Amino acid sequence: MKLALRRLRTAAVALGACTLGLSVMSVPAAEAYAVQPVAPQSQRAPESEQFQAEGVTTVGELRTVDGALSSASDGRTQVIRHPGASYVKVHFSALRLAHGDYVTVSSPDGRESYRYDRYLNRATGSDYTTDGQPGFWAMSVDGDTAVVTLHSSRASRGNVATIDRFWRGYDRTEIAQHNFSTQSVCSTDARRDVVCYQNSHPTEYARGRAVARLLISGGGMCTTWRVGNTNRMLTNKHCFSTQSAVSGSEMQFNYQCATCGGNNPGAGTKVSGATLYKVSSGGSGELDYALYSVNNFTSIQSFGTLYLATTATSTGTRMYIPGHGDGRPKRLSIFEDTQNGAACTVKNANYNSWNISYSCDTSGGNSGSPVLNSSHRVIALHHLGGCPSNQGAKAHLIYNQIASLIDNNG
Question: What InterPro entries does the record point to (predicted)?
Fold first, then answer.
């Protein structure tokens, strides 16, 4: 959501093993967890390289590290760990692999594992993101540890994989510290995990599956969702508006808790951004949209899609909002203050030329969320906070501008 953000950050400093929280080691895979990792000299990347975008929730920091994997033997493993991190996203500055060799970037429990060979072919290997610089970014691994393993039959020594940077995700306390907040939770926060509504509101639950968490260039967070029957996604222009940002971002579908209030999300399905098709003109207070596609589209088709309303909504219309406020697992805003109390409704269907308003609860990270009516059509694209008039850009106006680029028949 559009927030008045000016973040106060600490200067980049070099930290020793006692304070760093980063751990890197290179040992045979069988020994990887029997040995306490040793923290090398490392530092927070310069401030100019940290994620900064007004209106986008900052959820991580960039760190530099000097790490390499040798081809001395198969199964060489390097562990990159930052205790308490919510995710780790590793950058390879160089990958010098022979035919048949590959590296994996995995979570310690193997729940997530991404495979990369010399060809970086998404059809035969894993997805990845780029930033216009040499090398590539592996897909992020949820949790505070990424295990990088070399799979090779080569006998010769020499570095075959070089890691120079990584993003580590903030915990909830750090997210609050690094983001100034406009009051967008109106009175009591009535949002609940989407799974809480699986039985009582099955259609709202099902429609929410098309909504994903958007990790922008490694350190920012918004919400995004699939629109129409083809490979198209929508989010806010203020979340990203350039092809390079799309190519550097991940969309995480099915990132939601398994039980109501359980704080136990799975890793879901992650894909990278592909092609930016169109962004709105004007400022972030206007229509504020970005239309784009993803790589590995077939892997996210089972989560369904949403369709834009093609006519204006009206004041008093019942509504709900699925999204990833504060970067948390997906929640639904259905009621305004208390469960089974007053339902969220459109307060002003013509708040101004571009927006409708509502007091349905949102927070930073909800930027880009769909606002749906009781017929489960998207009536607005959420992008502005400020109770009692949280705002969403009018979906029918967005439709008028992108109709030729989507298949909205559903």
Answer: Peptidase_S1_PA, Peptidase_S1_PA_chymotrypsin
410: exposed, middle or buried (C-beta count within 10 Å: 0-12, 13-18, 19+)?
exposed
Place of tokens 């997906």: 330
The Cα 94–Cα 226 span in angstroms is 33
Q: Which two tokens stand for residue 108?
A: 């310690």
DSSP 317: -
- pLDDT, one tens digit per residue, over 316-337 is 999 999 999 999 999 999 999 8
How many angstroms separate the CA atoms of 355 and 364, rounded? 18
Q: Which domains does the chain have, with CATH numbers?
A: 42-173 (2.60.120), 181-403 (2.40.10.120)
52 contacts: CB under 8 Å, gap ≥ 6: 7, 58
Tokens for 338, please give them.
């208390």
pLDDT tens digits, residue range 111-145?
999 999 999 999 999 999 999 999 999 999 999 99
Cβ burial of 23 (10 Å; 0-12, 13-18, 19+) is: buried
How buried is residue 375: exposed, middle or buried, by Cβ count under 10 Å (0-12/13-18/19+)?
exposed
Rounded Cα distance between 238 and 291, Å, is 12
DSSP state of 374: T
Task: Name the phi and psi angles at 47, rounded to 5.
Answer: -55, -35
pLDDT for the residue 159: 72
Amino acid code (one letter) for 262: G
Nearest Cα neighbor of 234 from 194, 312, 291 is 291
Asked if 90 contacts 164 with a C-beta cutoff of 8 angstroms, the reply is no
Q: What is the pLDDT of residues 190-230, one digit of tens each?
A: 999 999 999 999 999 999 999 999 999 999 999 999 999 99
With vertex at residue 181, the alpha carbon angle to CA 178 and CA 187, rounded to the nearest 5 degrees, is: 140
Phi, psi angle pair for 101, to nearest 5°: -85, 155
